[in-house]
Amino acid sequence: MYNRFAEMRRRYLREHRDGIYTGMLLTDKLDDHLKEIGDTAQEMFDQLVEQMKKQYVKKAQRILPYGNPRKKTKFLGQALGVKDVQGGTSNVQ
C-alpha cells in the first residue's frame, strides 16, 4: 500500500511524464520505485516534524520562562498535540 508521497509521485508521473510512467509500469519497476520514493519522503517528513517540535519547545520555553511549570507543560503539550500530559511532564511521541 502506498503512502501519500508515493501517490503524489504516481500522479505526477502519470500526468506529466506519461512515457516514464508507462515504461516503468510495463517493466514492473513502478511499484518498487513508488515504495522507495514513499519511504524516503516519509522518513524525511518525520525528521522535519521532530526538528520543528524541538524548535517549538525551545522557543516556547524562552517565551514562557516564568510561572507554574505544570501550566507551561500543559501549554506545550497542547501546542504539540499531545493528549497525555500528566504530573508536569508531557509524553511527546
Q: What does this protein look like?
A:
The radius of gyration is 21 Å and the shape is rod-shaped. The chain starts with a helix and ends with a strand. A hairpin with a 2-residue loop joins β1 and β2 (89-90). A two-stranded antiparallel sheet has the order 1-2. The model is unreliable at 87-93 (pLDDT under 50). α1 packs across α2 and α1 (4-16) packs across α3 (30-63). With 93 residues, the protein is mainly alpha-helical. It contains 4 helices and 2 strands, in the order ααααββ.
What is the strand arrangement across the widest sheet?
A: 1-2
Strand content: under 5%
Structural class: mainly alpha
Strand runs, count: 2
- Helix and strand string, N-terminal first? HHHHEE
Q: How many distinct helices?
A: 4
Brief synopsis:
The chain has 93 residues and is mainly alpha-helical.
